Amino acid sequence: MDIQGKKAIVTGAASGIGRATAIMLAARGAAEIALVDVKEAALADTARRVEAAGSRASANLLDLADICATEAWFTAHGDVDILHNNAGIVSGLPQFPDVDAARIRAIIDVNLTALIAATQLAVQAMRRRGGGVIVNTVSTVALGTGFYDTMYATTKAAVMMFTRCCAPLKEECGVRVAGMLPGLVDTPILDTTGAGGKSEWMKAVLANHESCAPEDIAEGVIALIEDDSLAGGDWVAVRRLNGKIDYQWGHADTG
User: Fold this and answer.
1) Whether residue 152 lies in the annotated active site
2) pLDDT (tens digit per residue) in 47-102
3) Number of separate domains in the chain
4) For residue 1, is it within any domain?
5) How many H-runs (helices) and E-runs (strands) does the chain carry?
6) Which family does it belong to (predicted)?
7) Catalytic residue among 74, 148, 152, 235
8) Angle, nearest 10°, between helix axes 150-165 and 101-108?
9) Does 255 reside within a domain?
10) For strand 235-241 and strand 244-250, is the pairing parallel, antiparallel, or unpaired?
11) Is the pTM of this model over 0.90?
């Protein structure tokens, strides 16, 4: 898809990958970008940066854990060409099985239920306007055998399967759904893994793996949006290995 002149929504846009993607969409000529997050001051900062890059921006406070509010918002605002379902949260401490039920529900609703609801409503709107592209932020943990944060890994694996199952929408609705699988990325979410900062297990991960910058992942998101030769359900994993960005491409029918 040619991004020039298009309308977009980016969730989790207050920082990290969402902010970087929104700014890159603006730099590519997107006309309007709706920014969604729960962090008001940081979201306003992203909006200023997006407008400085040349696009109209709207800052929208929305708690994706509130599924009724999410459905209402996307019903009213989901008529766009591009949707980046990027928002996500981790368990923090304590971990499963000691994490409380309310936190488990919030992780499932933000990482998975809201993403499905947003995709459903956006696809319906995109079908009416002639097509579109949706990119879901997954994680490379969806390719592995396990991860310390059980609920985060479980929801991301589900998002991976959902993305692959959306492959037929390209032919049926003109909507191409793709997956972005970041490896380790230096974003503020890392500081929510522990009590008031990085957890000990996250510090160990950081000590043994190289981190991408949010912009590294955003470049992959832009590539997924722009390349209409890709099949529905295609995905790319982005990691930093030996000081260089590594891309691993996959398809809905090959895992």
Assistant:
1) yes
2) 999 999 999 999 999 999 999 999 999 999 999 999 999 999 998 888 899 999 99
3) 1
4) no
5) 9, 8
6) Belongs to the short-chain dehydrogenases/reductases (SDR) family.
7) 152
8) 30
9) no
10) antiparallel
11) yes
